[in-house]
């Protein structure tokens, strides 16, 4: 592995991976050599969609772009990042509350792994309302949600 390669980890549950998530990855691609979309496995959460289905969805979206890889991991994102040569954590922010949460997370990650820097990208205004939680809620009530998925 080239130590100068700019690799970013975009970590989350992505349950499901939305057009907002895709926008963050697509807009970040010019900044990095590679982006790893890491689906964190959290045994205390019951997922809406199975892990393999979520991985398959993301892999099919980026099948023609070798710069994007979708994998699962368990444990701390910083430990996974270190094991993969990641130098940047990529995060999207939709609101001021998201920014505060992400800034605190970035500070904690920096304490755990000083060599990894966090890059925050704001959501595009027309996508800022979209979240995985919104999609799950719409699905729960039988409302259309497909337009929020890539």
Radius of gyration: 15 Å
Shape, per Cα inertia axes: globular
Total number of β-strand segments?
Answer: 5
Beta content comes to 15-25%
> Level of helix content?
25-40%
Order of helices and strands: EHEHEHEHEH
Number of helices: 5
Instruction: Give the assembly state of these chains.
Output: single chain
On the 0 to 100 scale, the average pLDDT is: 95
Query: Major β-sheet, in short?
Result: 5 strands, parallel
Low-confidence stretches: none
Q: N-to-C terminal Cα separation, in Å?
A: 31 Å
Q: Look at the helices and sheets and give the structural class.
A: alpha/beta
Record the strand order, biggest sheet.
Answer: 3-2-1-4-5
Please characterize this protein's 3D structure.
With 150 residues, the chain is an alpha/beta fold. The protein contains 5 helices and 5 strands, in the order E-H-E-H-E-H-E-H-E-H. The chain has helices at 19-28, 51-61, 77-83, 96-112, 132-140, and strands at residues 7-12, 34-41, 68-74, 88-93, 117-122. It has a 5-stranded parallel beta sheet, sandwiched between helices. Strand 1, helix 1 (19-28) and strand 2 (34-41) form a beta-alpha-beta unit.
What descriptors fit this protein?
single chain; 150 residues; alpha/beta; five-stranded parallel sheet
In a nutshell, what does this entry contain?
The longest helix is centred in the C-terminal third of the chain and has 17 residues, at 96-112. This protein has helices at residues 19-28, 51-61, 77-83, 96-112, 132-140; strands at 7-12, 34-41, 68-74, 88-93, 117-122. It is an alpha/beta fold.
């Amino acid at each position: 592995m080239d130590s100068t390669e700019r690799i970013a980890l975009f970590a989350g549950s992505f349950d499901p991976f939305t057009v907002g998530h895709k926008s963050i990855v697509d807009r970040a691609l010019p900044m990095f050599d590679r982006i790893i979309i890491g689906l964190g496995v959290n045994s205390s959460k019951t997922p809406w969609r199975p892990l393999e289905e979520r991985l398959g969805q993301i892999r099919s979206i980026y099948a023609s772009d070798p710069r994007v890889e979708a994998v699962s991991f368990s444990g701390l994102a910083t430990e996974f990042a270190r094991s993969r040569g990641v130098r940047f954590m990529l995060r999207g922010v939709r609101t001021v509350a998201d920014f505060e949460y992400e800034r605190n997370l970035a500070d904690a990650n920096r304490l755990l792994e000083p060599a990894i820097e966090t890059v925050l990208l704001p959501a595009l205004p027309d996508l800022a309302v979209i979240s995985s939680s919104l999609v799950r809620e719409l699905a729960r009530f039988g409302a259309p949600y497909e337009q929020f998925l890539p």
